[in-house]
Amino acid sequence: MHQTSHPPAEMDRSQPAIVVENLQRSFGTLQAVQGVSFSIGHGQVVGFVGANGAGKTTTMRILATLDYPNEGTVKIGGHNVVHYPDKVRRLLGWMPDSFGTYEHMTVLEYLDFYARALGYKGQERLKRIQEVMDFTDLTPLADRMSNKMSKGQTQRLCLGRSLLHDPQILIMDEPAAGLDPKARVELKQLIRILAEEGKTILISSHILSELGEMCDSLLFIDKGRIVHHGDAESMTRGSAATAETLVTVQVVGDPAKLVQWALTAPLIEVVEETKRGARLRVQSVEEGTLAGVLRRMITDGLQVTDFHREERKLEDAFIDMLGQIDKGTFKGDTP
Ligand SMILES: Nc1ncnc2c1ncn2[C@@H]1O[C@H](COP(=O)(O)OP(=O)(O)OP(=O)(O)O)[C@@H](O)[C@H]1O
């Protein structure tokens, strides 16, 4: 239990909600986090993405005041996590990736236990617990043994516990891991509501597609380093990852004409000929360049009926990006 008391500490709104600078953490000779820096504005929902072992949990545990960095500083709501952990804990809700329930304790008793530990008393405590149970839809399960619930219900209880002190900032470590599709949707809806309430949320996952639609931006971590911070769209459009765009084009008449044209055009490679046209790789992500390609096709006499950019799967974009980083050819905006 890391939250200590209430009411919430004051938040310095002149600074971003979360600021991480040159964070480093080693375990023996293993450098789990190697100079991570990022900042997150108030009310932003940010996905923290990386393969197993990339350093997500280590980073998040330091943010949640559960571990110390070897180097670097972290400020939550303007407060240094090492110097003012109590203030930070009052502003912050932490949802760990694995969480324990107790035998012989109902959902209501479990939440009551944590609410007492947070210092809530009397009617106010009952009100907080009821609000949290209503929000997480646990009211019908109030008398259920907390260790006899489905994974989805358990995750909602864990979320409820982390919301008891109504924190402005939430850090969630792999909250959707192991959930079935229905429970995932329910969890996403709850996160969406919290985001609409203006909470700042950092949420980790190794499943990118899970985060893309939910987050304002994505932070990619690989081998303890941040390799990219941007919005999901810039990844699927390929900008940071590949600096190229896949375009599907259809024409009236023989597609060979289009292929012939593409073979001699600058910045363009033919990926494949299709029934009515071709898939092309354009070595640019600039909207102006793409518009220019379309214009040239038309002025060169091709009767274009369809021209559209392909959305790449986030997973593919991420894997491409990591490959390019390894080869040293990455053209994106590594911080
Ligand atoms: N307490 C510890 N002692 C030793 N090594 C650790 C400790 N905690 C983490 N590590 C190592 O640090 C590296 C980063 O682990 P971390 O848990 O932060 O990764 P992660 O990105 O959260 O991965 P996952 O998705 O598997 O949870 C891993 O190699 C891990 O084995």
Structure description:
- Helix 3 packs across helix 4 (122-135) and helix 4 (122-135) crosses helix 5.
- Residues 1-5 have low confidence and may be disordered.
- The protein has a six-stranded mixed sheet, sandwiched between helices. A four-stranded antiparallel sheet has the order 2-1-4-5, covered by helices on one side.
- It is built from twelve helices and 14 strands.
- With 335 residues, it is an alpha/beta fold.
- The radius of gyration is 24 Å and the shape is elongated.
- The protein folds into two domains: 18-230, 3-Layer(aba) Sandwich (Rossmann fold), CATH 3.40.50.300; 242-309, 2-Layer Sandwich (Alpha-Beta Plaits), CATH 3.30.70.
- Helix content is 36%, strand content 25%.
